[in-house]
């Protein structure tokens, strides 16, 4: 404590302090200057950048999805509409604790495990960030109210009215109109930049059928809204907006009642019916049975439902009229006969002896006629078609050869996609030498000619192709591209003539008369459906083998399992003198074209030609 | 007899000034300081109204704190300076005792234990230490010959270190730095040799690496890293600083207008009513508002230094200068952190940010300044 007792030099200490205080003052002024420079840099030099950033913070561009175009049948009946549905969705990025939010939601509204499963599936997929992922559709008024009251607990949860596609006849048109579904990850990755913009705010895309092929027309143009949002993303006000343009409406050639009748006529069998407007190629009905509820797919089908559909033995998801490839059997005979006439292989009056089988020269193999005892000693062309005499066509096929048969059949659309406006069409097989060498790696054998002539062997065709074929016959050679859509957004889709088959009128007369004989002749294979008809029809039955029958064996339906029995087919048109509607019918494993398929066609003809409603609508 | 020395320098004719001086003396109030404080607290309420979502309740509560703080200031201003000096050791011991109590029985939140709870009343001893520290050090050094010799410097450092270590333990890095600064500042004003200062700065720079490696908590490191690159974690730790810079920058020179700040009103700016309030001011009142506020702070600090220079003895000088400088450190650290110059530490903007404790502490400090300013002057010959 010695220094404490000494006198303090107050003046010296004050001077010393003054120096330090001055130094501190300088430092303070300098540091304040640093702050001023900093704020000048932020508020003046980089002002514009931060204004942009601040605007980007608060101003968000919200896409307004357009309303998808509606789909009507030819009579103006609404087939695909958009229903307002309140959807509960979650923006994952704005939720702190998803598990807790889900459990709170579970108390307020009904959320099934399926909903959660679907939600989680979509969450795992790649999405646009801050995109709301739907959890529940079709909220009730009461549920909406409960959610509104609890809004404060539910950050990131949104309830909004959304238009959801609804199909009024979901099962009837599942294979033609198809369905929309949620845009999935694969589609999202394949989107171009422009598509990403077009689909902003839109959650669904056409997956199948017309919904897919007319996606561009149906979608419409997206609108935009510039909105001011707070940090939690709640929209506070709309700054500016541009309205979306709704998609174009489609009017189809399809007729709901005809479709319904055709569906019912199959009586629960697996099969397909295609009805084509002979004069335009417009598809009046296209049925694949059994079918499914297309509405299931709109908001995302549950795993269980999908498995059920997918694993069903009856293949409800399978589009039989477009993707089902069946041996056409005797239904191709009119075309083969016409080729024979056209290439001068036969004349209508030439006859063939039919002992019930045919044998190629220098061969022991027997090619059987479906009728064991044969059709008689003098089978001419008309009888051959009316009674579906195989031996006549074996002989014709042998004499004509594959090249001519192939070239001629090709003009009727065989072996080529019909070009119908529904996607995923199969092309069938209309064999040729080249095709066989390419596909089978072997040369063309004489026996192959015989098989092609009766529509067996390698020949495969879709019911749609058969419909086009018979329509081309009915119109005397006008081969139209079949199409389902009559007008898009009010603009008529013009019929498209693919080619005009050039054949002498006399040949057409001969073949069409023979086809009339099938139904109205005393011995025609489909004479039963001609009974009591108010109009004349023409057609051809077919019964196609599903499994090959070995040489020397006979077809015994009892011994074959149901799935291996013959397919029943029929193609035809009506009325005979002024053909309007051409129909192709396939009934799987129903054994008899005349017994199972032809009656279906008759019902379709009746529905189209006799139904007063339809007649009134005809222009 | 009193202030002869002082008055001699004033113009003889200015009787009004002398009258005002006498009034200041009697009330123990420094008019300049009071005026600046009133402007800044009044303006602060205007900014807080906007930052606090225009809630009158917030303004009322803050108003009550201000009233309490001004009362505390006036009361402390009446305390004779020599009494403060005699109280200093006891205040220091009490402060350290309370800090030990925090470690033993304190309450806290978010992993930090900073409060003592006495029958529902919460008290933060580190806040008390912000004043007790400079008083104690000023009292200690004020009695020594200045500049201090090595022994006294050493004792001073020990006195500073004890409470600082206790506060670091809570952990509360921000406050501990401020408390340490308030003590070391006294040492600086006491005339600590520049050699020591340079050596200390060199040692500090050398200790940065071990500090980073062994002392700093992860969340503290994260704050520093965030400062260096806020974009690295836009939605997490970087969010605050990005949003506050955006608020400041988008304000421009004139600002967006009172209550018109989009960053603050649309909730992009976090802590807009507390630590980040200057971002609200900068957004709504622009560079003009910021310059006015910085000007006011600068005037307060310069006034404080003037008071210190005019103080009667070393204790008054050191204490006044330390309180003033500490106040400036608060200002600089807060504004530097909000504008992205310094890491984010929990330091409120003095006199403007919402919150009672900080305001009462600060105003008590200004009360001490006023007591020193109005101390009856002894004639020294």
TrEMBL record, chain A:
Any single Gene Ontology cellular-component annotation: plasma membrane
Annotated transmembrane regions: 21-40
The Penicillin-binding protein dimerisation domain, residue ranges: 63-239
Broadest EC class assigned to this enzyme: hydrolase
InterPro entries, alphabetized: Beta-lactam/transpept, Beta-lactam/transpept-like, PBP_dimer, PBP_dimer_sf, PCN-bd_Tpept, Penicillin-binding_protein_2
Annotated catalytic residues: 330
Domain called Penicillin-binding protein transpeptidase: residue spans: 271-605
Documented EC number(s): 3.4.16.4
Cofactor binding annotation: Binds one Zn(2+) ion per subunit.
Keywords, ordered alphabetically: Carboxypeptidase, Cell inner membrane, Cell membrane, Cell shape, Cell wall biogenesis/degradation, Hydrolase, Membrane, Metal-binding, Peptidoglycan synthesis, Protease, Transmembrane, Transmembrane helix, Zinc
Membrane topology: Single-pass membrane protein
Subcellular location per the Swiss-Prot or TrEMBL entry: Cell inner membrane; Cell membrane; Membrane
A biological process term (GO) from this entry: regulation of cell shape
Molecular function as annotated in GO: penicillin binding; peptidoglycan L,D-transpeptidase activity; serine-type D-Ala-D-Ala carboxypeptidase activity; zinc ion binding
Swiss-Prot/TrEMBL cofactor(s): Zn(2+)
Protease listed as a keyword: yes
Pfam short name (any one): Transpeptidase
Top-level taxon of the source organism: Bacteria
Descriptive protein name: Peptidoglycan D,D-transpeptidase MrdA
Biological source species: Gilvimarinus xylanilyticus
UniProtKB/TrEMBL annotation, chain B:
A Pfam family reported for this protein in Swiss-Prot or TrEMBL: FTSW_RODA_SPOVE
Enzyme class: transferase
Transferase recorded as keyword: yes
Main location, first listed in the record: membrane
Protein name: Peptidoglycan glycosyltransferase MrdB
GO MF annotation: an example: peptidoglycan glycosyltransferase activity
Family membership noted in the UniProt record: Belongs to the SEDS family. MrdB/RodA subfamily.
Catalysed reaction equations from the record: [GlcNAc-(1->4)-Mur2Ac(oyl-L-Ala-gamma-D-Glu-L-Lys-D-Ala-D-Ala)](n)-di-trans,octa-cis-undecaprenyl diphosphate + beta-D-GlcNAc-(1->4)-Mur2Ac(oyl-L-Ala-gamma-D-Glu-L-Lys-D-Ala-D-Ala)-di-trans,octa-cis-undecaprenyl diphosphate = [GlcNAc-(1->4)-Mur2Ac(oyl-L-Ala-gamma-D-Glu-L-Lys-D-Ala-D-Ala)](n+1)-di-trans,octa-cis-undecaprenyl diphosphate + di-trans,octa-cis-undecaprenyl diphosphate + H(+)
Entry-linked PROSITE patterns: FTSW_RODA_SPOVE
NCBIfam families per UniProt: rodA_shape
């Amino acid at each position: 404590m010695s220094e404490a007792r000494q006198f303090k030099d107050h003046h010296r200490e004050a001077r010393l302090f003054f120096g330090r205080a001055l130094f501190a003052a300088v430092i303070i002024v300098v540091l304040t200057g640093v702050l001023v420079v900093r704020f000048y840099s932020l508020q003046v030099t980089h002002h514009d950048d931060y204004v942009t950033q601040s605007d980007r913070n608060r101003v968000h561009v919200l896409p307004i999805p357009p309303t998808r175009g509606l789909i009507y049948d030819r009579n103006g009946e609404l087939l695909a509409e958009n229903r307002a549905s309140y959807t509960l969705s979650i923006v994952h990025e704005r939720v702190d604790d998803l598990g807790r939010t889900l459990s709170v939601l579970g108390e307020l509204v009904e959320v099934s495990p399926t909903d959660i499963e679907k939600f989680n599936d979509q969450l795992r997929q790649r999405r646009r960030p801050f995109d709301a992922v739907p959890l529940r559709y079709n909220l009730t008024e009461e549920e909406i109210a409960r959610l509104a009251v609890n809004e404060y607990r539910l950050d990131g949860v949104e309830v909004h009215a959304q238009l959801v596609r609804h199909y009024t006849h979901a099962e009837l048109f599942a294979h033609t109109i198809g369905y929309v579904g949620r845009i999935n990850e694969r589609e999202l990755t394949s989107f171009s930049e422009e598509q990403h913009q077009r689909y902003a705010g839109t959650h669904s895309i056409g997956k199948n059928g017309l919904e897919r092929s007319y996606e561009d027309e149906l979608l419409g143009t997206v609108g935009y809204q510039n909105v001011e949002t707070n940090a939690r993303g709640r929209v506070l006000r709309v700054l500016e907006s541009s309205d979306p343009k709704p998609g174009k409406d489609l009017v189809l050639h399809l007729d709901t009642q005809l479709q319904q009748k055709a569906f019912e006529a199959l009586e629960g069998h697996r099969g397909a019916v295609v009805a084509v407007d002979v004069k335009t190629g417009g598809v009046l009905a296209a049925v694949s049975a059994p079918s499914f509820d297309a509405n299931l797919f709109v908001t995302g089908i549950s795993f269980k439902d999908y498995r059920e559909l997918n694993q069903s033995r009856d293949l409800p998801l399978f589009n039989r009229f477009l993707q089902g490839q069946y041996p056409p059997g005797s239904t191709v005979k009119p075309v083969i006969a016409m080729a024979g006439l056209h290439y001068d292989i036969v004349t209508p009056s030439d006859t063939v002896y039919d002992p019930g089988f045919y044998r190629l020269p220098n061969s022991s193999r027997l090619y059987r006629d479906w009728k064991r005892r044969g059709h008689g000693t003098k089978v001419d062309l008309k009888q051959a078609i009316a009674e579906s005499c195989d031996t006549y066509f074996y002989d014709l096929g042998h004499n004509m050869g594959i090249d001519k048969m192939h070239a001629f059949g090709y003009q009727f659309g065989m072996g080529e996609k019909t070009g119908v406006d529904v996607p995923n069409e199969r092309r069938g097989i209309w064999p040729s030498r080249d095709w066989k060498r390419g596909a089978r790696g072997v040369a063309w054998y004489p026996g192959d000619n015989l098989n092609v002539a009766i529509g067996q062997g390698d020949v495969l065709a879709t019911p749609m192709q058969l419909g086009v074929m018979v329509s081309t016959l009915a119109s005397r050679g006008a081969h139209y591209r079949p199409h389902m859509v009559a007008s898009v957004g009010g603009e008529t889709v013009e019929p498209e003539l693919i080619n005009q088959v050039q054949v002498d009128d006399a040949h057409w007369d001969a073949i069409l008369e023979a086809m009339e004989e099938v139904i109205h002749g005393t011995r025609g294979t489909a004479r039963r459906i001609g009974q009591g008809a108010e109009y004349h029809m023409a057609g051809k039955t077919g019964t196609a083998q599903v499994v090959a029958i070995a040489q020397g064996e006979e077809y015994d339906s009892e011994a074959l399992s149901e799935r291996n029995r013959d397919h029943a087919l029929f193609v035809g048109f009506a009325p005979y003198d002024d053909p309007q509607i051409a129909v192709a019918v396939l009934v799987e494993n129903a054994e008899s074209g005349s017994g199972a398929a032809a009656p279906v066609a008759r019902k379709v003809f009746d529905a189209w030609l006799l139904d007063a409603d339809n007649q009134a609508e005809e222009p | 007899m009193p202030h002869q020395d002082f008055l001699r320098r004033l113009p003889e004719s200015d009787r009004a000034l002398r009258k005002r001086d006498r009034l200041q003396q009697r009330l123990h109030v420094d008019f300049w300081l009071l005026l600046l404080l009133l402007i800044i607290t009044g303006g602060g309420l205007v900014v807080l109204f906007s930052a606090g979502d225009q809630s009158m309740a917030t303004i009322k509560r803050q108003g009550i704190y201000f009233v309490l703080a001004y009362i505390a200031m006036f009361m402390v201003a009446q305390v004779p300076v020599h009494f403060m000096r005699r109280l200093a050791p006891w205040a220091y011991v009490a402060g350290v005792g309370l800090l030990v109590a925090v470690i033993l029985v304190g309450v806290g939140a978010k992993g930090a234990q900073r409060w003592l709870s006495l029958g529902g009343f919460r008290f933060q001893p580190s806040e008390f230490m912000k004043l007790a520290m400079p008083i104690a050090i000023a009292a200690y050094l004020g009695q020594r010959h200045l500049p201090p010799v090595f022994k006294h410097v050493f004792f001073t450092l020990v006195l500073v270190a004890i409470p600082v270590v206790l506060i670091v333990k809570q952990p509360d890095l921000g406050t501990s730095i401020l408390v340490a600064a308030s003590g070391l500042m006294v040492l600086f004003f006491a005339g600590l040799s520049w050699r020591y200062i340079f050596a200390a700065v060199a040692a500090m720079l050398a200790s940065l690496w071990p500090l980073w490696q062994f002392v700093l908590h992860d969340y503290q490191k994260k704050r520093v890293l965030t400062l260096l690159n806020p974009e690295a974690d836009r939605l997490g730790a970087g969010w605050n600083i990005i949003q506050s810079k955006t608020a400041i920058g988008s304000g421009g020179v004139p600002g967006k207008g009172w209550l018109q700040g989009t960053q603050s009103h649309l909730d992009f700016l976090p802590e807009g009513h507390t630590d980040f309030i200057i971002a609200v001011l900068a957004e709504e009142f622009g560079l003009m508002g910021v310059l006015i506020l910085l000007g006011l702070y600068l005037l307060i600090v310069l006034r404080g230094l003037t008071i210190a220079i005019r103080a009667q003895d070393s204790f008054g000088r050191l204490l006044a200068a330390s309180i003033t400088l500490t106040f400036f450190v608060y200002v600089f650290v807060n504004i530097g952190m909000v504008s992205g110059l310094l890491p984010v530490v929990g330091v409120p903007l003095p006199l403007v940010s919402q919150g009672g404790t900080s305001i009462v502490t600060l105003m008590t400090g200004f009360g001490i300044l006023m007591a020193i300013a109005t101390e009856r002057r002894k004639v020294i010959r």
